[in-house]
Design goal:
- The structure holds two protein chains of two kinds.
- Chain A is mainly α.
- Chain A has helices at about 1-20, 20-40, 55-75, 75-80, 85-90, 95-120, 130-160, 165-180, 190-200, 200-215, 220-245; strands at about 45-50, 50.
- Chain A has eleven helices and two strands, in the order ααββααααααααα.
- Chain B is α/β, with parallel strands linked by helices.
- Chain B is built from twelve helices and 15 strands.
- A six-stranded mixed β-sheet of chain B has the order 7-8-9-4-10-11, with helices on both faces. In chain B, strands 1, 2, 3, 5 and 6 form a five-stranded antiparallel β-sheet that branches.
- Residues about 320 and about 330-334 of chain B have low confidence and may be disordered.
- The chains are: A mainly alpha, B alpha/beta.
Chain lengths: ~250, ~325
């Protein structure tokens, strides 16, 4: 009971902090939107399997909107450590696992809010999504962002100071997104790029969501779903272990 | 007359508590008993091991050897029970600056499982105790240093802890704010009937607040008693002189047998002596005969600083540097 309450408390803190920082919400929406409008507009002459480029791009943008927010919220533990608040949490009669779960669910919720805002734009740019696809997409987004938050938490437990924060964000977030097939169809890509993309777990997240939203994919949905689920589960477990071990 | 309890419970008891970091001993075989209801002070310079000691008691650090009991619970085997029994104010700030004062307290109540029905009442109560009731809706980032510290004290009390740990509660605060905090600490000791263990390197703080003081240096407890007894234990007054050539002077004055202990810091010589009033003129005569000019002389009752000097042979310096830095500096001495 008190563990549940601890999880809820830590989750709530993430939500309050997210909600209070309106500029962060806006700034993390701007980037995916820019890609959607500029790339989608600029490449509007491209047709892919009967779809216009913007429609093809859209599911990738949805996933992109999750990545930054999710990883950042995991890595934010470094801030908590730096500003001392982590001690207050660590000395409370709540297990590390519960702290981890609260943190992961909090990050996941904030990422979902961002993702849902982008997903809702589908109606604006004329991509019809059935209620069922919409629900399944939310489920997939939750799986993906839980995994990403865990990656953030693992990074946070590995590095000591927040000076390296920017480096990590650039070295992890951008490659993760660019090599995920979010911007181009994988079957058309050169071999080397294909290989890298197939190693990138996020590729399977993009593929799964793309299949659900627009019915287009380079990898079969069952494979995508399996890979992304197994991957998320694995990093959640690893993140939990790393969080339990950190000082 | 007050009824005397038959058994005075030891709310904190340590058994050969030891902590080593890579072979460097930070806390060395400490055996300490803290009685229920007292304000207990751990006095020592930065790097003496006070924070490490407290970190073990509040279960943030595992002891290398030995253990301790807090409120009857073992700090290694019964972590959760220990955590529920204690409140702690860390040396460094540990508030969420982006939440309001009240939100910080609500978080704490949630983490410690304070029943929902009691929460609001209890939070109001502790806010009033530290005089922050009116400002509770502001973001903590807009608080002053003193207000933050008071909020942390309030927060540590929410879940009715039996023991309150205060690690350098007034570090980095200006003297006026410091005295304010002292008032709050005294008030809450009275009202909340709580045992307080505080660490400090300010001797006036230990003197003003504590029922008993343990002097800690290099991870060991050197001496433990009431501030009064500690000062009396020097059996004398402190006679200080400022001279040009302290070395020569000390060599010669050592021969006077009424001087119990001499300590030299730069040009100042501090001597623990009996009957300082009578001795002072003799010392001055002595100096004149040996042609050593004395630029000032003073007599005072011993302070806890003198007690520290007496038991450790060093002055307790009021450094305000980074504790990590101090630890490093201390390690270099090994």
């Amino acid at each position: 009971m008190s563990e549940l309450e601890g999880i809820y408390t830590i989750w709530l803190r993430e939500i309050i902090r997210f909600w209070r920082d309106k500029s962060r919400i806006i700034s993390s929406l701007v980037q995916p939107l820019l890609f959607l409008v500029v790339f989608g507009g600029g490449f509007s002459f491209v047709r892919l399997g009967g779809l216009n480029y913007q429609t093809f791009l859209f599911p990738g943008i949805v996933v992109m909107s999750l990545v930054g927010v999710s990883i950042a919220s995991g890595v934010s533990v470094i801030w908590d450590r730096e500003f001392g608040f982590l001690k207050e949490i660590l000395v409370a009669p709540v297990s590390r696992t519960s702290i981890f779960i609260g943190k992961a669910l909090g990050g996941c919720t904030t990422a979902l809010i961002q993702g849902l805002i982008i997903l809702s734009l589908s109606f604006l740019i004329g991509i019809p999504i059935s209620p069922l696809s919409f629900l399944v997409s939310i489920g997939l987004m939750a799986i993906i962002s839980l995994g990403l938050v865990s990656i953030g938490l693992i990074i946070a437990s590995l590095i000591e100071t927040f000076e390296s924060f920017g480096v990590i964000m650039n070295f992890i977030i951008f490659p993760l997104i660019f090599l995920s097939g979010a911007f181009f169809p994988l079957q058309e890509a050169p071999e080397w790029l294909k290989i890298i993309s197939f190693v990138n777990p996020l590729t399977y997240g993009v593929e799964a969501i793309r299949f659900v939203i627009i019915g287009f994919s380079s990898i079969s949905f069952s494979i995508s779903l399996t890979v992304i689920s197994v991957f998320s589960l694995t990093v959640i477990l690893l993140g939990g272990i790393a969080f339990n071990r950190q000082k | 007359m007050k009824k005397i309890k038959n058994i005075v419970m030891n709310i904190v008891e340590t058994f050969n508590l030891t902590k080593e970091f890579n072979g460097i001993v930070a806390v060395n075989n400490v055996n300490l008993k803290i009685k229920e209801g007292e304000i207990f002070g751990l006095l020592g310079p930065n790097g003496a091991g006070k924070t490490t000691f407290i970190s073990m008691l509040c279960t943030l650090l595992k002891p290398t050897r030995g253990t301790a009991k807090v409120n009857g619970f073992d700090i290694v085997k019964q972590q959760n029970e220990v955590r529920k029994s204690i409140g702690i104010v860390f040396q460094d700030p540990s508030l969420d600056n982006r939440l309001t004062g009240r939100e910080n307290l609500e978080m704490h109540a949630g983490l410690y499982g304070v029943p929902k029905s009691e929460r609001k009442k209890r939070i109001d109560e502790v806010l009033k105790l530290v005089g922050l009731y009116e400002r509770a809706r502001e973001l903590v980032r807009n608080y002053s240093g003193g207000m933050k510290r008071r909020l942390e004290i309030a927060r540590a009390l929410i879940h009715y802890p039996k023991v309150l740990f205060l690690d350098e509660p007034t570090l980095g605060l200006d003297p006026q704010t410091r005295e304010h905090i002292w008032e709050y600490i005294k008030k809450l000791a009275e009202r909340e009937r709580i045992t307080i263990l505080l660490t400090t390197h300010y001797m006036e703080e230990a003197d003003a607040l504590c029922d008993r003081v343990a002097i800690m240096d290099y991870g060991e407890i050197k001496v433990l008693d009431t501030p009064e007894n500690l000062k009396n234990s020097l059996e004398g007054d402190v006679l200080s002189l400022e001279v040009k050539n302290p070395k020569i002077f000390v060599e010669k004055i050592k021969k006077l047998d009424s001087i119990k202990k001499i300590h030299v810091a730069e040009n100042r010589i501090s001597m623990t002596v009996k009957n300082a009033e009578k001795l002072a003129p003799k010392v001055l005569d002595f100096a004149r005969k040996n042609k050593i000019p004395v630029s000032s002389i003073s007599i005072r009752k011993p302070s806890l600083g003198d007690v520290f000097l007496h038991y450790t042979g060093r002055e307790i310096r009021e450094e305000t540097g980074e504790p990590k830095e101090m630890m490093k500096r201390r390690m270099r001495r090994f």
